[in-house]
Design goal:
- This protein has about 350 residues and is α/β, with parallel strands linked by helices.
- The chain has 3 domains: about 120 residues, Elongation Factor Tu (Ef-tu), domain 3 (Beta Barrel), CATH 2.40.30; about 120 residues, 3-Layer(aba) Sandwich (Rossmann fold), CATH 3.40.50; about 80 residues, Ubiquitin-like (UB roll) (Roll).
- Helix content is about 25%, strand content about 30%.
- Strand 1 and strand 2 form a beta hairpin.
- The protein binds FE2/S2 (inorganic) cluster (FES).
Length: about 350
């Protein structure tokens, strides 16, 4: 599980996440908490979901705002002495301790999957996001692919006990049964609340599901066009759901888990950060944010998918291309560094 090189790195980083166990250091930790800028969380339990996915349950300290089902939060993890932040959807239902469900993809997620243990400390920012349950009861269709199930699991666990007869269809695409996160929990939820009808689609058995194909979807959910639709997962999957819903006048509520890089350009670029007097080469598939992080230059960021605008940094010279739209941006002013790359030179006040 995980990249072998990363495993070696994790071994080298052993102990970094350890929570102090002796009472004195425990007290020191909480003494430090009063002046800490960020809320801290303490891991209470780690549950293996699939071979490469775990759910990390934690209690949150003062300053944590209770999450709403479907929201995400930036979580900070100490890796090799550096605190690195990534956004994670919260998989726990509302009104309880939070949890995140993490698939081993990328440095921070692999670190969490390999090393998270009860007692470890996490750093927390407040939950945010507008992927939320409707205020009024309505028939729902959740279209989910892969780890897109994580915020939806929070929604289902929140919604079904609140309205046990609620009419909800979940179409959940995953590679196979083994990689299907929360498979058994979803079946148990459906047993308990008959209004929930899960439809599992395993691509190894049935091939790819074209979520923009009305006939294919009608076989799984005949009245899909009459339901309020939620979609969560990879950009291409969510866009397909949007295309189909749009064709019958619907606007689904969506959350994307990645960015389709349609306009990477295939060429290297160069970015300069004037405040830190740093010039970096940017790889053909890298964003400005990723290039900065590779050089351990911290830039602000949140969702990393062009949604939240937390990553705005002033462009002072040169140009950038948006990797999703291909739009060229030359005017000096704030730029989303998570979805742009230099074209081919860009200068930032950072
Ligand atoms: S980090 Fe959210 S828009 Fe860039």
């Amino acid at each position: 599980m995980g990249h072998p090189g990363i495993k070696g790195f994790f071994r080298a980083a052993a102990g970094i996440l350890s929570y102090p166990q002796d009472p004195r250091s425990f007290a020191q930790m909480f003494g430090a908490l009063s002046s800490a800028h960020y809320t801290r969380g303490r891991i209470t339990r780690v549950r293996r979901e699939t071979p490469d996915t775990v759910t990390v349950f934690f209690t949150a300290g003062d300053g944590w705002i209770p999450h709403r089902a479907g929201q995400w939060a930036r979580i900070g993890v100490e890796v090799d002495g550096k605190r690195i932040w990534r956004p994670y959807s919260i998989s726990a239902p509302e009104h309880g301790d939070p949890s995140i469900t993490v698939k081993a993809q990328g440095l921070v997620s692999e670190h969490i999957v390999e090393r998270a243990a009860p007692g470890n400390v996490l750093y927390l920012e407040r939950p945010e996001g507008q992927f939320l349950l409707p205020d009024t009861p309505t028939e729902l269709l959740f279209m989910v692919a892969g780890s897109g199930i994580t915020p939806v699991m929070s929604m289902l666990q929140t919604l079904m006990p609140r309205r046990p007869d609620h009419d909800v269809v979940l179409v959940y695409v995953s590679r196979n049964r083994e990689s299907c996160i929360f498979h058994d929990e979803i079946l148990e939820l459906a047993d308990q609340f008959p209004g929930l009808r899960p439809v599992f689609w395993f691509t190894e058995e049935r091939g790819r599901l074209d979520a923009s194909d009305a006939d294919a979807l009608a076989e799984l959910c005949p009245d899909h066009a009459d339901r309020v639709t939620y979609a969560c997962g990879p950009d291409s999957f969510v866009s397909a759901v949007e295309d189909l819903a749009g064709s019958h006048g619907g606007t689904p509520v969506v959350e994307r888990f990645d960015v389709t890089r349609q306009f990477s350009g295939g060429q290297r670029g160069e970015v300069r950060f004037t405040r830190s007097d740093m010039t970096l080469e940017v790889g053909p598939d890298e964003t400005v944010l990723e290039a900065a992080e590779r050089a351990q230059h911290q830039l602000p960021h949140g969702c990393r998918m062009g949604i939240c605008h937390s990553c705005l940094v002033p462009l002072t010279d040169g140009a950038v291309t948006n990797i999703r739209t291909g739009e060229l941006h030359r005017e000096p002013g704030p730029v989303q560094t998570c979805v742009t790359r230099p074209a081919p030179h860009a200068v930032f006040d950072a």
